[in-house]
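Worked example

This section walks through a single chain of length 265. The input is the sequence exactly as stored; nothing has been trimmed or padded.
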Amino acid sequence: MKSGGGSLYGRDSGDAPAQEVGVFLPVGEVFPGVKASEQALVEVLSVLSRDDTLFMCARLNIIVSGSGDFEVKSRQQQAIDSICSSEQIARINAFSLRPTGSGLPIVFFAGQLRELMRWASRHCKNLPGDGTTYANASQRERFFMAALIASDIWARRVYGDKLTVDDDIVAVRRRAIGAFRKGVDETNLAQHMGTAIGRGLALFTEYMPRHYPDFGDVFEKATGLTLRLISAAPPRCRTRKARRPGMRRTKLLRWPTIKSLRCRH
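Given that input, the structure is written out below as tokens.
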């Protein structure tokens, strides 16, 4: 498979056009006959090792939604390369060629992976060989099935019937706005860290005190922290990165990468 721009996963056919609306990949498109039910998800999770599954979810979440300039298709490509077989990729591309006008489907996203982590925490247990179970292609296939089922369960939980149209358009808009906000929150890429810190700083030191004059006192009583301390945190974080003379360099932990789990198809 090749990475890079294109209208299909694994094909270098030019940049994909920007889309206003995206679609998620239904589990039945890759695994015909599999229903996106809670029972089906529990059955799949029963043969997956808990810690490996949680670790895989976390790693995929970093790939597809972590901060950075890595564009969406390349993120999806990297995640798909690490999990899917050639046959599964062909089915994904076949689905993307349908005339929906939505372009490439989103295969992995943050809300789906968090949903899967919640279910795995409850219904998985550590199996023999935990730590290397996803070196097995059949286990990766089961994980992929579980992720697609979790995607549908997430969608039903977030959207449900909130997008149903009735006679009162105002009520429809009010009911839908929460679902849309939740959907955007759990499918968008993470903000740049500097942007997130800046917005949080403005929220807690400017906007909240402006509309809630006692906010500083209430915040300190609840947390034991002052707003002044919070506002000074970002510069202190930057200062701590500098090495002082005679200071030993801290060794970073080398975590296993997703590439170590790849299997050539």
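What to look for: Residues 193-240 form one domain.
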